[in-house]
Amino acid sequence: MLINGPADVAGAALDGLTRTADGVSRLAGSTATAIRSDVAEARAAGLVAVVSGGGAGHDPAHAGYVGSGMLTAAVTGALFTPPPPDAVLDAIRAAAAPAGALLVVPNRPADRLSFALAAEMARADGIDVVVVPVGDDVSRTGEGRRGLAGTVLVQKVAGAAAAGGRPLAQVAALARRAASAVGTMGVALGPCTATVAGVPLSGSELDSPLELGSHQGLGFAPGEVEWGPGASGEPGVGRGPIGSAYQVAARLIAAIVEDRGIVPGDRVALLVNGLGASSPTELSIMAEGAVRALRSWGVTPVRVWAGDFLTTLDMAGVSLSLLPVDDELVAALDAPTTAPAWPHTTAPAEPGLVKAPPGISTAPGELGLDHPVRLVLEAVAEALISVRDELTALDREAGDGDLGVSLALGAAAVLAECPAYPGADGPAAVLRAAADTVRRTVAGVSGPLYAILLLRAAAALPDSPGPRDWAAALRAGLDGVREAAGAEPGDRTMIDALAPAAATFADRLDAGHPWPEALNAAVDAATTGADATVDLEPRLGRAGYLGVRVLGYPDPGAQAVAIWLRAAATALHP
């Protein structure tokens, strides 16, 4: 592949884009964040900012959709890796006017968490932010629907609404309507090459796109394809023989029509998307096949686009996206945009830099030795450090093996930094400072989840909280984690311990029980909930790939919640 090195892909591609696309600049100080060159004018006009992004390897998504009438900014991470929350936050700060910002996020767990944490930090800065995830993959169901090329159509609709001067609530409503309606199904004719290792990445034989292990030289059997692959080479719904292009198009269209409930007489927009190594000729043939298939269903394609919109490096294959439309959505899709990757021509330009306005920072303070919040933070940290090996061993059986180490590293950082937390500014400020520590030091999905929990809890606290205020804060933190992770009780996650604890604490207080008794009951509820995950089949995250193999082991994340809740209760009432 024509690259300088795996770590340079996103940045070098953006450098080239800013030289060939008029109106797109790199955000000053960023690794690979594209932003409208006229962002200052857009902010001055009071337009809602539309921000999106994801891992590298999907060009022209998402930097290619930066421009008037589409995205205000796009944040790119490393290869198939979500951008870090701080980079997303920088983009929000640079792009958002007082009208606020809409985040259009491909529905993959790590991407959702990164953008959700950035949104929480932006809200703490006083920026109004709404997150709209896009899960258009019809090969999956429920929260497991991945974000594919249909994300581009949602970006176009949202960008048009924002350019029209609509308020954030209306922009978000139209984006949600498009996101809930669009469906995508694809087919891969062969593997892509993972530039971090230089070997083929072949989909269903791998648990995740970068776990290459000893899978060298993977290929497809002659005439074999993979149906429903993910955008980063993740598994589809299985492999099978390929037919003619029209037969492939008919199968893809049928999957989307049936899943999305499209009926005769409906109008749709059709996006024929190359995965990176399919020729324009092939895409044109597939476009014709898709239109014929739609007409056989009695469905009218009123808009059709074909090209590379969201790719998987050099993968051969195609995806089809259908968006059922009415006059309002057609007008949004037709609205003008300067985004270079939306079909039109732009003039070359020299690259520019746009500096982000300074963010809001909290000055270091002092948290006294006997401050109740410090006593709790230190007790929780010491407890998590003490069970590091236990949680690590459990996570090797029922997860990806890093939970104990990740939480222990974060706990050690909290112990080191909490004396400088701003105790004089109140408990909410202390929790925000702890969230900052956690997001910087806890790896994996746990860092964003716990940071969101702390930020939401802080936002719910008054200046001088009582027991009921703390119960409300715990509930708010729970809600933040549920929204970010897309998890509910029974999904075998930390929610299975956190939800019963929050409910029990509030219920006991409402019934008139003393707060120590209510808190101990909440700890018992968390422990019972965590233990019950032994019999739950996982639906989300890494454990979801392991399936029934984790039965008999409690969920490590839920166990961790029970452990730190007990430590907190003991610190407050020995």
TrEMBL record:
Keywords linked to the UniProt accession: ATP-binding, Kinase, Nucleotide-binding, Transferase
Gene Ontology biological-process annotations: glycerol catabolic process
InterPro entries: DhaK_dom, DhaL_dom, DhaL_dom_sf, Dihydroxyacetone_Kinase
All residue ranges annotated as the DhaL domain in the record: 371-570
Pfam family, one: Dak2
MF-aspect GO terms: ATP binding; glycerone kinase activity
Gene3D superfamilies per the UniProt record, alphabetical: 1.25.40.340, Dihydroxyacetone kinase, domain 1 (3.40.50.10440), Dihydroxyacetone kinase, domain 2 (3.30.1180.20)
Domain DhaK, chain residue ranges per copy: 5-342
Alphabetical list of PANTHER family matching this protein: TRIOKINASE/FMN CYCLASE, TRIOKINASE_FMN CYCLASE
The protein's name in its UniProt record: Dihydroxyacetone kinase subunit DhaK
Organism for this UniProt entry: Actinoplanes aureus
